[in-house]
Amino acid sequence: MWSGVLLVLCGLLTPPGAHGANWQGSGHASQKHAVAGEDALITCLVSIADSSSEGLPANGVIWAKLKTSDGAGAKNGEDRREILTADTTRVTTDRRFSAIRSDEGDHSVLVIRNVQPSDAGIYVCEVSKEQGPARSFHELNVLELPQLHKKNNNDASTATPTEASRVARHNFTECCVQADVSKRCLGFCNLQNIVEGNTGEDVHNCEVDFPHIINCMADGRDHTACCAREGVIDLCIDVCRGIYTPTSDKIKTHYSCDEYTERALACVAEGVEILPSTPRRVRVEALSEHTLQVSWRFPEHNADSVTQYEISVQHVTSFDPPKTTTESDAVDVSALTPVPTQGPFNLQLKVPATYNSSLISSLNPFSMYEIAVIAVNRHGKSLPSPAIRTLTLVPGQKKSKSPTSGTLPPLPDVKKCCIEEHKVEPKCAERLCNPHLEELTDLSELFECAPYATAALQCLTGGQDHTACCRARGVPDPCRDFCRAGNETVTFDYSHIRCIEYSDIYSSCLLQSYGILPSAPLDIQVTNINHDFAIIHWSDPEVLPETIHHFVLHYHKLDQTAVDDLFVFRTVLNVKSPYLLSRLKPDTRYEAYVQAVNEHGTGEPSQRIVFTTLTEKMEEQLEQEEVVDIYNSTECCVSAGLSPLCLPLCSYDASIHDVRALSTVCAPYFHTLLRCGAGGRDHQACCKRRGVPSRCQSLCYGILEDSIPYTAAMCKQYVGNIIQCFEEGAGTLPGPVRELHALEVTNHSVSLTWEQPEENAGPKPTGYEVRYIEVNDSAETREPKELFVQVKSVSNTSATIEGLVPGKVYDFYVLSENEHGTSLPSAMLRINITATDVGSGLAGMTSSPRGLSIAGRGANFLTLAWQPPFVSHPSDPIKYSVHYRENLPGEQRVPWIRTNTSITSALLENLKPNTQYQTRVVAITDKGSSLPSETLLVWTDPAMPAIVEPPKIQPGAVVEGGSITVLCIALGTPAPTVSLYVSGKLAHSEKDTRHLVVTLHNITRHMRQLSCYADNGFGTPMQASKRIVVNYPPTLSASSAPSLSLKGGTGVLECKVEAQPEPQTVFWRDAGGRVPVVQGGRFEVTVKEVKGVPDTKVMTLTIKNTQHEDEGEYFCHAENFLGSSTQPVTLKIRPAESLPMNASSCCESLNVNSACLDACSAGAFLDLDSVLDQPECVNDLPKIIRCAADGSDHRSCCTQRGLPQSCLNWCRGETMDISTSTSASAPNNHKFCLLVYGQHIMACFQQGQDRLPGPPQSLKAIMIGANFADISWEPPTRNPDAAQTYRVFWRELGSRLAMKNDSLTTELRLMGLKPATFYECVVKAGNQYGTSMLSKPVRFKTNTEDYITTPSSLAGSRLVGVAWPVGIAVGTALIGVVAVLVVLAAAWLVRTKKVPSNAGGRVAFENPGYLRELHMDNIASAVGDGQVSWRQESLQVATVTGEEGLISELQHRTAQSQHGD
Question: CA-CA distance, 558 to 588, in Å (whole number)?
């Protein structure tokens, strides 16, 4: 399902297209979905073009509903409408409908409270214009969802998703419309449209809307866990939270996350199905000074899958009081005295899924906390709910309680109390004894009435202490004297003048204590968040809701930089819920709260909601203010001598358009652009953090380690990441130092000085690092030794390095550093530590150019390329002087020829063909010349040799049996012959061409390499190869013979499977595949790769303690996406007495201890513990095992089963000398190998009994000459038909070097022998399953050059020669004459240069390629069915003597070779 989604969304990886025009027409209705019982909000965007030139008409926006459901149809060509609202005035009698609009009039929202199924239909938003009305249509769908959670009766919104809700969940059109997505791109807001390809618009034309589309698709889920599993880096993981930043023309954003977009979108698409949405309507209530209660409604989607809720509680260290302010008002920060907190406070609470509320205790009094709730299930989590901020109560503060009756309580008669009880003068009583404190404005009257302050407070407070209320509302400590209960005398003086501004707070606290002010509004939330507006909702307070006249909304931006603006709130008066809050800034975090107002004053503030507006859709509007960097990369490029044509690229804001237009022209100056981009700073730490791979991190410090094309291919997707690090580092890392000099050089020290970085080079350094290293003083090598780089840190711009070794050469360079990192070195000094008068000082120079190489060559030209110096100042203009001269033999030298260039390549022309040249490069700056680079010896071509590119293949995915088209492109003069080789075999060839196109049909799995070969007869032919991966379905093969096992023994069934890609494998017990063989118990299933054979594995079923019911057919099964295959294999159980070997007789012949002969019975081999339990039998174990092996070499089987090399000799019936290995990693003792691998060894013995041949018999030399010998033998006596090939080994008697050859018959002629020399020879038999033991050796002596020995002349002696008067000497002489003629002809051809010569090192190291000569030793000869190849054994063996020496040595070497392969 999701593949269809990705096919469409992958279009995001391409550059965005042009933005389309706005949608027009009235036939299309945007869709909105709402749940019955909740509120529905339908948003209409009113553009300037929709209104008259004089602004909106008097009736503003009209909302109506089309009445088409009654079947009346149209009247006078129009649908009948029911007018609902005109502007913000309700017209319909249904009080559930209302309309709100922004202050600017550009947005209108129709609000339908408690929406019902009957409200579904088409709604019209209409604006009158001179040309006629402009309308937009909005379709409302109402979903009825059954109740899910019944624990909380007040939560009626939790429901089980039905199929209708599932479809609605994949339709994000409502969200997209509210986010102002272009109407023609709304098709992408419905997953069904995307899957079916019915989006109605090209994806490129909608790329600008994808920030809003992706935000809607996330649908309140947090997909970051899936994205992290898929390898999406932190820099790009925002899309997994519904945040998408569109790529722009700026290069720093173009390639940053393309590699991860597909994976991220796949996670988003999957998460919509399985993750819960965000918990709704989070409410936080302060119960006491230490406790908060958090409650919420269950998620709208996937609520039944929630396993728990996580509540995040974070202490806000700075907050503002809930004081009504205007845009210009600011609250005195000194009024805030929250309880101090020990460090940052961050608490995570986990609540079971069946609860939707929780208490948070142990909090600090009078402290603000930010709270959010996340829903969690087994797949992941939702996004956090909008953050709520609230204050704990002040000690002594009580929660507001509802009045006992529905009417307001009467106000106390404070004036009467003041006049009658405390004898306050009527004039002062009028001023001081008014709960509203409206008359505290005249300072003179205030001081006149100051003596009555204590009496007035006693009457106003009624004996209650309001300090907690005043403190909670931000009254500073000196002014809280007037909040006390009045029991203490209050003296009013000039220090209290500032308290007058808090008179409204005093009044609110007094009125609140009288119980006549409403409590805090409830359920504040925010919806329809756009880039410039949002809709705020809230519910009426619990206390005195019927007395409310209106509400006051307060909001401000968070994270403001100006301290004076931290507590500035913008206030909107006379608002009602919901309220459309407009004029917001894009991508900005806001905090808002509301207060209820009645006839007596303003009530308590609500909890605070925190939200972030969306990113504005147009990239050019994101950066309205140009940021001026301290470091100017363009100035660096100008100073470095960059061509003015390329200056547009020397900017962190360079555009893709400029890169494409100037890439060809400015490619030679890439190094300058890179150096100035890095700015002499080391950005590696940032690059690692932003996901730049190690292969590209050299770019992060301005160095190009490979060619530009290779680097572009490997690193282009990380260019944006790197440039962002360059830009970040320009503001955090110090620039490079300047003017490095050595002022004094002694026999043990060097005094250095330098200047700090330039003023415009970025942040100032806090210190410096002087680094130095001893180097090789050879003029030719000039490479640092393998020594530790020594570092000295200093805080000023000079340093003296002491303790140096006299006469040694050191390199010195200096880095600047600060807390963020270091700069790069800008100059280096290479100094011989010898007391020297340096005069005014030695100036630091740039280092040598690096990586001198050949970029091209011809008969009379060479193209050199190199890398710029590692150490240089980024703004230094660097030029290069290229030195070259002909390399003459001996001590002859010619002067250097010099040519200058400003780029990192040079063309050397008018050279001699077929001539070797010396070349080197020197870097030149205004401070002098660097040391020369390495010297490169290179030959010019004798002519224009053939050059060929690697084959180009279409299509990229290759399937067996299909067809591919291969293109070979070659260059050369004359035009070469171009050939295509498939896996080393010629497929097609064409003469006199520069390109070859071949279509290969019926591709097979063995076509693993394609090679283009070009040759024009001059120079070295060139071959370029490319490996291909051929996909094919599994094929299974197995032995047709049944696998044999003793009852109670171990049965082994094997199948070989070939497939690409790797298949899934299983063993079945029945042909129908209904009964699989399950791993465990007596059954062990393994799958191992076959070494040296690609795409091939061996699947093995091992059955321990076999029983008769295990006998029968099993089925190997393998499958991949291309197909499947099944192969039957048979297990046969046989009794012990049916074994072909006579183990007891063998043991008796080898003098096995009589007490151990029972262990030689057929069944005893299955019980190794019984053998090891008899101490007297341990020494006879080699003899017992040799009898069990029965003359066959089972090491191939044992190697496949994982036996270590030290135990392999057991598999041929012998053991190694215990003294040869004593390490723990290679244990070599009887008990270890048998205890750990005994069952595997015995299984191999049983497995090989019927399919491995025995050793060949009757080996003899039947004809012997001076240089050859004919050897013959008889087939093995055991399993002779299993011997498919023979391998013969021979060597001089006493020699360490043995030779070998293979034969398919029972005879072989040994060639190349020495006359009159003793030889010994052995042979072994083998097939695809393994080999036999070596035969007994035969010795013979070659004759002199004039004789051949035949069997008839042996006369009872093993080595007796018979003269044969044949003209051997004459034949030998003729052969010598022919050889001399061939040598002379070859010499003449070389002298006349008719063929290429490789003498004298003519094949230089820079030669691009040559064909390798084929030797027989490089070819593995296939055996049997071609699936198993004999490996080439090592020919060097240990020196031994005696008749058994060759057997022992060759067996030892063969085991090592087989195990190593």
Answer: 8
pTM of the model: 0.42
More reliable by pLDDT, 377 or 1214: 377
CB of 1161 closer than 8 Å to CB of 1144: yes
pLDDT digits (tens, 9 = 90+) for 310-362: 998 888 765 554 444 433 333 333 333 344 434 456 788 888 888 888 888 88
Are 160 and 177 contacting, i.e. CB atoms less than 8 angstroms apart? no
Q: Phi and psi (nearest 5°) for 649? A: -85, -15
Burial class (CB in 10 A: 0-12, 13-18, 19+), 433: buried
User: How many Å is the maximal CA-CA distance in the chain?
Assistant: 161
Tell me how far apart the alpha carbons of residues 987 and 860 are, in angstroms, rounded to a whole number. 35
Nearest to 535 by CA among 102, 175, 35, 63: 102
Kindly report, residue by residue over 489-528, the tens digit of the pLDDT: 566 666 666 676 666 677 777 777 777 888 888 888 887 7
Read off the tokens for 1444: 């058994």
CA distance 408 to 292: 28
For residues 927 and 932, give the distance between their C-alpha atoms in angstroms, rounded to a whole number: 15
- Exposed (0-12), middle (13-18) or buried (19+): which is 1438, by Cβ within 10 Å? exposed
Q: Rounded to an integer, what distance in angstroms lies between the CA atom of residue 1409 and that of residue 126?
A: 76
Q: Rounded CA gap, 218 and 241, in Å?
A: 6
Residue with tokens 């979903």: 143
Alpha-carbon distance 535 to 576, whole Å?
11
Distance CA 1115, CA 1055 (A): 9
Distance (Å, whole) CA 631 – CA 647: 16
Beta strands in 276-420 (DSSP E): 280-286, 292-297, 308-316, 346-352, 357-360, 368-377, 380-382, 387-391
Cis peptide before 974 (omega within 30 of 0): yes
What is d(CA 78, CA 654) in angstroms, rounded to the nearest whole number? 55
Nearest to 926 by CA among 845, 870, 847: 845
pLDDT per position as a tens digit, 244-276: 766 666 666 655 566 676 777 778 778 888 899
Other Cβ atoms less than 10 A from the Cβ of 398: the count is 12
How far is Cα 219 from Cα 1306, in angstroms, rounded to an integer? 78
What letters, b where the CB count within 10 A reaches 16 and e where it falls short, cover 1199-1228? bbbebbbbbbbbbbbbbbeeeeeeeeeeeb
Distance CA 366, CA 480 (A): 15
Q: At what angle do helices 210-218 and 258-274 cross, to 10 degrees?
A: 40
Beta strands at 608-612 and 809-818: parallel, antiparallel or unpaired? unpaired
The SS3 assignment for 622 reads coil
**String of DSSP letters for 843-903:** EPB----EEEEEEEE-SS-EEEEEEPPSS--TTS--EEEEEEEE--STT---PPEEEEESS
The answer for residues whose C-beta is within 8 angstroms of residue 340's C-beta and 6 or more apart is none
Q: How many CB atoms lie within 10 A of CB 222?
A: 23
The CA distance from 360 to 313, in Å, is 9
Which residues on neighbouring strands pair with residue 375, listed in sequence order? 309
Q: Burial code of 1377-1402, b = ≥16 C-beta within 10 A, e = fewer?
A: eeeeeeeeeeeeeeeeeeebeeeeee
Helix (H, G, I), strand (E, B) or coil at 370: strand
Number of residues in the chain: 1461
SS3 sequence, 45-89? ECCHHHCECCECCCCCCEEEEECCCCCCCEECCEECEEEEEECCE
Q: Beta strand 29-35 with 134-143: parallel, antiparallel or unpaired?
A: parallel
Tokens of 905: 């390549």
C-alpha 938: how far from its chain's center? 42
